[in-house]
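Standup notes, structure subgroup. Blocker cleared on the iron/sulfur cluster input:
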Amino acid sequence: MSQALLKVQNLKKHYPISQGLLGQTTGHVKAVDGVSFEIAPGETLGLVGESGCGKTTTGRAILRLIEPTSGDVLFKSQHVTTLNQTKLRKLRRHMQIIFQDPYSSLNPRLTVGGILAEPLKIHKLADKSSRSEHIANLLKTVGLSPDAARRYPHEFSGGQRQRIGIARALAVEPELIIADEPVSALDVSIQAQIVNLLQDLQAQLGLTFLFIAHDLSVVRHISQRVAVMYLGRIVEIADRETLYNNPQHPYTQALLSSVPVPDPRLKRNRIILKGDVPNPANVPSGCPFHPRCSDATPDCKQIEPQLLDIDTNHRVACILKTEQAA
Ligand code: SF4
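Run returned:
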């Protein structure tokens, strides 16, 4: 990989569980438990997994919207995790987030113009005389009319509101955007429009994306590489074609087996996972996936698999696969 724009190293977010009158800590919910990956400039890395696997927490911990428990995040070689609040605010200009629910992330008391003016004022990016023109250009960039600046968020549809959320992220001319389930609250027909808009913006502006989603088809469409999360850890990471055509981790294989195939003549053998996702406060020993894995051996209960290379640009956390590749 060329020099990474973003490096995430052994990132953890553990929430203490307190009990009793004195609030003693009796355990931890390991929402993110040692996640590492890199994203090159201009690349889109998709981060997928079932809900509760820790992907949203990972995105927020990278931006320090929630403080990580440990680990490191480097943005252009700058250590994000140790920055003081003043320096962090300045850096946030370059690292923006698009939220799943555009409506709750937009201030309902401000017009769209007011919403877009805020980041411009905070980061001193446009003086008063040029602000309206700047806002009109932002709205045009995301496919909205400049007249939208005078209206309020509730006057727009879900897809239009997500366009406003994207315009707000673009206002500060970021290099990295963390898109946290940006289309999952939208109708399927609108989802494609927003995904296409993000791709066009990436081509025009050279943006880098961490695209978080549970919908494997959407992630396949937009990502160059894909990482699969399970119980707070990455279990497989590879370029898109490898991951979708030759998944190696049994969890990835099961997830992909449930994606509908567009051609009804093609049949896919659906892999039904045993049981439910375990409680992240009580992660199984050894391989966290072993209670649900049909390939599990007695070793899987004892040995914690590491995310290791099994091929060029293909890493898997499964002791069977890494033994076979060795
Ligand atoms: Fe399954 Fe064992 Fe591989 Fe875990 S390490 S995914 S339990 S085969």
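Discussed briefly. The first helix runs from residue 55 to 63.
Next: hand off to the docking folks.
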